[in-house]
């Protein structure tokens, strides 16, 4: 694990949480979206809401970081990192905006931090069973992809 | 009634996003370290390599299903229930799926992490 890889994991955590929050904020403003197979316009129009649009943009950034992380780390290693965003948001709310945080939330923060710590202390990638994901050519240089 | 919808959305979001996560993880393991590939062959090689992996497209579709179910769920159900409950359930389902389908070594350390994080996410929403 290099510094750059930790940066990618940080991107996963931050972009996912901020993106989700913006989406939630936007959807709340829209009220109930009527859903029927014949009328999907309500759902498509949701994208025009600036909160929703910016949320989607951040979720795309999250997705890029996420698949990059998955290319060199286990799914069960990357996933807990995504939850660190919740902790960040709560800490910023408390120390930045002086919001009161209930003891259940502090407990939640503790559990998430402990969980992430558990995983981060271990290896980022575990060997798969022999022959499971075959040694595909991608793990070597592809001459045809030279650009 | 809206509770039923909310839980249906939670179930759908968790299942779809677990399916998507597993497919994406599988695809990206086949692609290999993106950083290395980028340095060796450039960004276009990375993009074409990723986009031509068939399971990647399936994973993106599953993620899309999860995303839209979450949108529905957020507008129908209780915001403070749908998002954390589906996130929490996804952590546990993913640990199971990563072991079964990706054959990751989900040892005691990673089980503990999945459960702690799932519980923590739920607690933070209460």
What features would you describe in this structure?
The complex is a heterodimer of chains A (147) and B (126). In chain A, 66% of the residues lie in helices and 0% in strands. Chain A has 147 residues and is mostly helical. Chain A has one domain. Chain A is globular, with a radius of gyration of 20 Å. Chain B is an all-alpha fold. Chain B has one domain. In chain B, α1 runs antiparallel to α4 and α2 packs across α3. The mean pLDDT of chain B is 87. Chains A and B meet through α1, α3, α4 and α5 of A and α1, α2, α3, α4 and α5 of B.
| Class from helix and strand fractions of chain A | mainly alpha
Low-confidence stretches of chain B: none
Helices of chain A, by number, come to 5
Approximate strand percentage of chain B: under 5%
The shape of chain B, in one word, is globular
Number of helical elements of chain B: 6
Q: Determine the mean pLDDT of chain B.
A: 87
Q: What structural class should be given to the helix and strand makeup of chain B?
A: mainly alpha
Number of domains of chain B: 1
**What does the overall shape of chain A look like?**
globular
Q: What is the distance, rounded to the nearest whole angstrom, between the alpha carbons of the first and last residues of chain B?
A: 22 Å
Order of helices and strands of chain B: HHHHHH
Oligomer: heterodimer
Task: Kindly give the count of domains of chain A.
Answer: 1
Low-confidence stretches of chain A: 129-147
Task: Give a summary of the structure in a few sentences.
The complex is a heterodimer of chains A (147) and B (126). Chain A is mainly α.
Keywords:
heterodimer; A: 147 residues; mainly alpha; 5 helices; 66% helix; globular; disordered C terminus; B: 126 residues; 6 helices; 0% strand
Helices and strands in order, then pairings?
The complex is a heterodimer of chains A (147) and B (126).
Chain A: H1 3-30, H2 41-46, H3 50-72, H4 75-96, H5 103-120
Helix pairs in contact in A: 1-3, 1-4, 4-5
Chain B: H1 2-31, H2 34-41, H3 43-51, H4 54-76, H5 79-100, H6 108-125
Helix pairs in contact in B: 1-4, 1-5, 2-3, 5-6
